[in-house]
């Protein structure tokens, strides 16, 4: 039995030591470069937790607070965080809390584009740096005829928009939520067109009541409530207050929204809370205040008529529902 | 087979008894342990509706099950499961009136007038009332089998209305509504085909 003989390698084919070392260095550098590119997803990266730590610190301190819900008592934190509509995490009311971990928020950045002088993609910590925060207690009225009273923490959307200089052609603002079907179970089915899209007229977006919110009840925004940054428009049905915002685009024409695309006869662009205009399939005259028994009468513009009614002067609210 | 035919039928009837009654114990336990979420009344309305509709569909499915297997147990237990379905759907309506509307009669009346899905649901339940009332063996005999049989075909109309009720009240996620609609349509289709074939 003849033993196997290794084929002899000619000297010319052996890699010189120096070249071999160079290749090792190149591979290492490439790996490092790859890691840097992937850093947003890695816990070790300096970018992760960048916004959370700073925000937690600020929320631990005193913030100016303003109640705009009369003497109505706050909804219990537990109720406000276990009864949610956030279809990205499932369509049952309890799903968003159960599957909250599927929403990856660290790191987070928001792209501001379209009709602005200073477009770009900005890390959340940079958006929050130098931005004063405040607490606002608002009523929150869902289109499904239930409501809550929530102490939001955030800042006027107008502050952010002004920093980026809307052009004269900026007539409407489009918002987009996160698109991450690999992690968000709800986005694996076409319940609604993903990513979730909403929109405001520019004067609605610049209104002092309109907030970008990063916390509630003195805490960093829970994932199921739209972490890390969401819109709050208290005089409109809750679905207008888009969660987990990744994109803000200023445009000239009135945009469509996910709900309008889903069912244009039932959902309008304005979606102002209005007890006199019913949803085609149910009444909007009353609401169930979560935590109370019985029903409350729904207020025009959710009780914010004094502040916002003038925005819609002369408009037929039956037509522009 | 270890069991005698009579024992198998008894076992099946006990199974139907469990299917009809155990959800009530489960619901009572959820209620007592405060596990029905933020709006327990709403959860009870949904639970009773789902359970009742499932049992209604099962009642209808017992006929093809008998046709395919030839096992008489399905026909014997059909009345029993049908009455459980009626019980759950009646509970569904009462839960809506009491736990969701808090017995506010002017509003219950207004919701019935305003909301199409309430009307479809009410009609579906109303159609089941004569079926429940004539479900006794002696009424079946008194009515005559043919007349009784024709009357009890209303269960298909009721189930179809139930499917419409569920479809109309759904806001965005049509998974469950589609599931019920497809099963009801398939069972109705089978009934029609079966009737046409057996007439030849």
Describe the structure.
Chain A is of the alpha+beta class. Chain A has 2 domains: 14-48; 64-312, Sulfite Oxidase, Chain A, domain 2. Chain A is 21% helix and 21% strand. Chain A has 9 helices and 13 strands. Chain A starts with 16 loop residues before the first helix and ends in a 13-residue tail after the last helix. Mean pLDDT of chain A is 89; it is low at 39-46. Chain B is mostly helical. Chain B has one domain. The two termini of chain B are 36 Å apart. In chain B, 25% of the residues are buried. The chains are: A alpha+beta (321), B mainly alpha (200).
Oligomer: heterodimer
Count of alpha and pi helical runs of chain B: 9
> How does the major sheet of chain A shape up?
8 strands, mixed
* Regions with little confidence, pLDDT below 50 for 5+ residues of chain B: none
Counting structural domains of chain B, the number is: 1
Beta-strand segment tally of chain A? 13
Number of helices of chain A: 9
- Which percent band covers the strand fraction of chain B? under 5%
Average pLDDT of chain A, rounded to a whole number, is: 89
Question: Which pair of chains has the greatest number of interface residues, and how are they split between the two chains?
Answer: A-B, 25 and 18 residues
Chain-wise SSE layout:
The complex is a heterodimer of chains A (321) and B (200).
Chain A: H1 17-38, H2 50-60, E1 65-67, H3 77-80, H4 95-98, E2 109-114, E3 120-123, H5 124-128, E4 134-141, E5 146-156, H6 157-163, E6 172-177, E7 197-201, H7 202-205, E8 211-216, E9 219-220, E10 230-232, E11 245-251, H8 258-262, E12 286-289, E13 296-297, H9 305-308
Parallel strand pairs in A: 1-4, 2-11, 5-12
Antiparallel strand pairs in A: 2-3, 4-5, 5-8, 6-7, 6-11, 8-9, 8-10, 12-13
Chain B: H1 5-32, H2 40-69, H3 73-100, H4 105-114, H5 116-133, H6 137-143, H7 145-152, H8 154-169, H9 175-199
Helix pairs in contact in B: 1-2, 1-3, 2-3, 2-8, 2-9, 3-5, 4-5, 5-8, 6-7, 8-9
């Amino acid at each position: 039995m003849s033993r196997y003989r290794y084929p002899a390698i000619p000297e010319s084919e052996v890699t010189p030591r120096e070249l071999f070392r160079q290749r090792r260095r190149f591979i290492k550098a490439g790996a490092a470069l790859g890691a840097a590119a992937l850093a947003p997803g890695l816990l070790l990266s300096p970018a992760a937790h960048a916004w959370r730590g700073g925000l937690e610190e600020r929320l631990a301190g005193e913030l100016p607070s303003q109640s705009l819900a009369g003497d109505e008592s706050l909804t219990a934190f537990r109720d406000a965080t276990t009864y949610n509509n956030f279809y990205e995490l499932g369509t049952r009311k309890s799903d968003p809390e159960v599957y909250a971990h599927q929403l990856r928020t660290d790191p987070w950045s928001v792209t501001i584009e379209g009709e602005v002088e200073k477009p770009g993609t900005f890390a959340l910590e940079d958006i929050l740096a130098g931005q004063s925060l405040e607490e606002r207690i608002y009523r929150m009225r869902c289109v499904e005829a239930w409501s809550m009273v929530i102490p939001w923490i955030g800042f006027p959307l107008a502050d952010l928009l002004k920093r980026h200089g809307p052009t004269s052609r900026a007539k409407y603002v489009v918002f987009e939520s996160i698109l991450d079907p690999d992690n968000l179970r709800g986005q694996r089915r076409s319940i609604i067109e993903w990513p979730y899209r909403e929109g405001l007229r520019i004067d609605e977006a610049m209104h002092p009541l309109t907030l970008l919110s990063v916390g509630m009840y003195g805490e960093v925004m829970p994932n199921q409530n739209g972490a890390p940054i969401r819109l709050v428009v208290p005089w409109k049905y809750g679905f207008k207050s888009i969660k987990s915002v990744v994109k803000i685009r200023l445009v000239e024409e009135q945009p469509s929204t996910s709900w309008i695309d889903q069912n244009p006869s039932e959902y309008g662009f304005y979606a102002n809370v209005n007890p006199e205009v019913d949803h085609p399939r149910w009444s909007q005259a009353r609401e169930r205040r979560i935590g109370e028994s019985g029903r409350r009468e729904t207020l025009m513009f959710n009780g914010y008529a004094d502040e916002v009614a003038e925005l819609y002067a002369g408009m037929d609210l039956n037509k522009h529902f | 087979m270890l069991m005698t035919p009579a024992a198998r039928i008894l076992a099946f009837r006990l199974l139907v008894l469990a299917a009809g009654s155990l959800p009530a114990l489960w619901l009572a336990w959820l209620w007592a342990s405060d596990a029905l979420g933020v709006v327990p009344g709403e959860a009870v309305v949904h639970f009773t509706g789902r359970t009742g509709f499932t049992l209604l569909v099962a009642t209808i499915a017992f006929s093809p099950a008998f046709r395919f297997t030839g096992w008489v147990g399905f026909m014997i237990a059909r009345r029993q499961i049908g009455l459980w379905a009626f019980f759950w759907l009646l509970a569904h309506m009462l839960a809506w009136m009491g736990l969701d509307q808090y017995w506010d009669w002017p509003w219950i009346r207004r919701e019935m007038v305003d909301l199409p899905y309430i009307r479809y649901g009410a009609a579906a339940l109303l159609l089941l009332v004569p079926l429940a009332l004539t479900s006794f063996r002696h009424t079946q005999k008194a009515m005559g089998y043919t007349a009784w049989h024709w009357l009890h075909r209303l269960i298909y109309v009721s189930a179809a209305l139930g499917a419409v009720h569920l479809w109309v009240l759904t806001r965005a996620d049509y998974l469950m509504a589609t599931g019920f609609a497809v099963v009801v349509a398939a069972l109705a289709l089978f009934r029609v085909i079966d009737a046409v074939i057996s007439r030849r």
